[in-house]
Amino acid sequence: MKLAGLQKTSVIDFPDQISAVVFCQGCNFYCPYCHNKQLIPVETPAGEELMPQDYFFRFLKQREKLLDGITITGGEPLLQPNLKEFMLKIKEESNLLIKLDTNGSNFLKLKALIKADLIDYLAVDIKFSWNNYEQVAPAELVSEIKKSVAMIINSDLKYEFRTTVVPQLHNISEIAKIAAQIKGADKYFIQNFRPLNTLAAELSQSRTFAPSELSKFRLEAEKYLNDVQIRA
Ligand code: SF4
After folding, report:
1. For residue 34, what pLDDT band results from cuts at 50, 70 and 90?
2. What region holds the Radical SAM core domain (predicted)?
3. Where are the domains of the chain?
């Protein structure tokens, strides 16, 4: 596992739980609005150091009683060759719940983790409507994401789909297409983006959506989905 860092406590990453957040190095997407751009290179950037796994598991031992769960995020955690073993070790060494954040681009790996019952809560980014995905990801990954979405909707998992919305990239018709392509999903979150440390420098100066615009997006998505919420 290439662990890039640890946030020792978070009350916002894992719904209804206090979690520690562990960040994985490396991502196969290039979202222009990514605010963790230092986590995109698969190789650790010069001057940065990875966090030793021993440090993480020592932390786990010390802080387990103060936490409900661990959020594994990225980068893209599914790129890590030893993710399953890492999650197994968390389960063996603690009673903590595990939330996994992913872009859904490795169907078989995700399927194996679900089958092994290692995910207590899954959050999957739906970046765009399928035809627009090439803005952020290689075309060959779209079929993987489609398969992941279908599997998740038909599973017993606790999960959410979510879209980070950016004024230059998303509009109401894009939200309608995204909502239609995840029809049948339990929960969908529309998240306002943060113009901070973005991969595309020009987006650091961008406006974000107003609450009234986000409400219109929610109403549009509710034409296809039962539970749509906004994260401002
Ligand atoms: S936003 Fe997430 S999926 Fe997109 S480049 Fe950043 S880490 Fe990767």
Report:
1. very high
2. 13-232
3. 3-231
CA nearest neighbour of 146 among 131, 163, 135: 131
Q: Which two tokens stand for residue 128?
A: 């765009």
pLDDT over 90 (residue 48): no
* Mean pLDDT (whole number) for 43-51: 80
Predicted local confidence at residue 71, as pLDDT: 98
Report residue 49's pLDDT band, with 50, 70 and 90 as the boundaries: confident
Give the pLDDT score at 232: 78
Residue 28 beta carbon below 6 angstroms from any ligand 1 atom: no
Distance 168 CA to ligand 1 centre (A): 17
Question: Which helix (H) or strand (E) element contains residue 98?
Answer: strand 97-102
The Cα 229–Cα 188 span in angstroms is: 6
C-alpha of 36 from chain center: 12
Radius of gyration of the chain (CA): 17
Class of domain 3-231: alpha beta
Burial of 191 (0-12, 13-18, 19+ CB in 10 A): middle
**Tokens for 38?**
């230092």
